[in-house]
């Protein structure tokens, strides 16, 4: 068998294996979603979304946890997005390609793969104990901002790197400064990719449970947060608490809460995919 025939055989094998893996993944996802919908869909109602937590499963709701999740999303975005985008712009447009820059880039990429519980321990020591923020919305949002910051930096750099070099050269040739070129040309051209990275990073932050548990986020909070220093609950923590209960009814409540969390996550991912496709179509 010559090399061309071996390459064709290997290509066919990889295609078959890839197709089987994709079908298996879709089948497992369909089974999971079917079981989840069958268990928790009937529990979803206006009463479930607007009720406070309770020790009686038929009265329990996710109102405080849902609002806590919204607070986390907003504050995490406010803390992480400006820093992540600014760091990505600096490293890609201003950072000199030296040995320390390559080392910094490798470390940022590695930080994106650090387990989330490590960020929880860091948030517990820095924000909860040292800064004395307690188990507040601000402490949780700061911890999750650190978690998604490497993802935002990498996504920003990749989006900026995809902008053609000729666009920068044309702007500079017309007399624009470097900052004007970045602000009026590079950032608008890479906005779709940057926004996609932001949404995907926030969708990861929404579903994180380990950092919230480590910093001491409560499962039962009888009020919705009204300011960043308030204690709060969140959907992942509420789901974890309900699943750990022995009563079957709390398991049904957890399934319904998981559906709500999945709707939020899938919605964010859907928006990210739409923006990414539109951005790719606009690229020359």
UniProtKB/TrEMBL annotation:
<protein>
    <recommendedName>
        <fullName>Phosphate transport system permease protein PstA</fullName>
    </recommendedName>
</protein>
<keyword id="KW-0472">Membrane</keyword>
<feature type="transmembrane region" description="Helical">
    <location>
        <begin position="137"/>
        <end position="160"/>
    </location>
</feature>
<feature type="transmembrane region" description="Helical">
    <location>
        <begin position="111"/>
        <end position="131"/>
    </location>
</feature>
<feature type="domain" description="ABC transmembrane type-1">
    <location>
        <begin position="66"/>
        <end position="272"/>
    </location>
</feature>
<feature type="transmembrane region" description="Helical">
    <location>
        <begin position="181"/>
        <end position="202"/>
    </location>
</feature>
<keyword id="KW-0812">Transmembrane</keyword>
<keyword id="KW-0813">Transport</keyword>
<keyword id="KW-1003">Cell membrane</keyword>
<dbReference type="Pfam" id="PF00528">
    <property type="entry name" value="BPD_transp_1"/>
</dbReference>
<dbReference type="InterPro" id="IPR000515">
    <property type="entry name" value="MetI-like"/>
</dbReference>
<feature type="transmembrane region" description="Helical">
    <location>
        <begin position="62"/>
        <end position="91"/>
    </location>
</feature>
<comment type="similarity">
    <text>Belongs to the binding-protein-dependent transport system permease family. CysTW subfamily.</text>
</comment>
<dbReference type="InterPro" id="IPR035906">
    <property type="entry name" value="MetI-like_sf"/>
</dbReference>
<feature type="transmembrane region" description="Helical">
    <location>
        <begin position="254"/>
        <end position="275"/>
    </location>
</feature>
<keyword id="KW-1133">Transmembrane helix</keyword>
<dbReference type="InterPro" id="IPR005672">
    <property type="entry name" value="Phosphate_PstA"/>
</dbReference>
């Amino acid at each position: 068998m010559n090399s061309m025939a071996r390459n064709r055989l290997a290509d066919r094998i990889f295609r078959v294996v890839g197709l089987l893996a994709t079908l298996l993944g879709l089948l497992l996802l369909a089974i999971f979603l079917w079981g989840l919908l069958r268990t928790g869909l009937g529990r979803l109602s206006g009463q479930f979304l607007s009720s406070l937590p309770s020790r009686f499963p038929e009265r329990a709701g996710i109102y405080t946890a849902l609002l806590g999740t919204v607070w986390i999303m907003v504050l995490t975005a406010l803390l992480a997005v400006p820093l992540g985008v600014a760091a990505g712009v600096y490293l890609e447009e201003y950072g000199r390609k030296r040995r320390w820059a390559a080392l910094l880039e490798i470390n940022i990429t590695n930080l994106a793969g650090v387990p989330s519980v490590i960020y929880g321990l860091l948030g517990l020591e820095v924000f909860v104990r040292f800064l004395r923020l307690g188990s507040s919305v601000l402490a949780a949002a700061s911890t999750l901002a650190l978690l998604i910051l490497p993802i935002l930096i990498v996504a920003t750099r990749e989006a900026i790197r995809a902008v053609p070099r000729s666009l920068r050269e044309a702007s500079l040739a017309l007399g624009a400064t470097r900052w004007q070129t970045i602000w009026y040309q590079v950032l608008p051209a890479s906005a779709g990719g940057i926004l996609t990275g932001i949404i995907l990073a926030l969708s990861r932050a929404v579903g994180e449970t380990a950092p919230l548990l480590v910093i001491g986020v409560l499962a039962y909070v009888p009020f919705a947060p009204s300011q960043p220093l308030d204690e709060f609950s969140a959907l992942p923590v509420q789901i974890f608490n309900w699943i750990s209960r022995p009563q079957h009814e709390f398991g049904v409540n957890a399934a319904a809460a998981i559906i709500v969390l999945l709707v939020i996550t899938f919605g964010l991912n859907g928006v990210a995919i739409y923006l990414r496709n539109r951005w790719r179509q606009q690229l020359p």
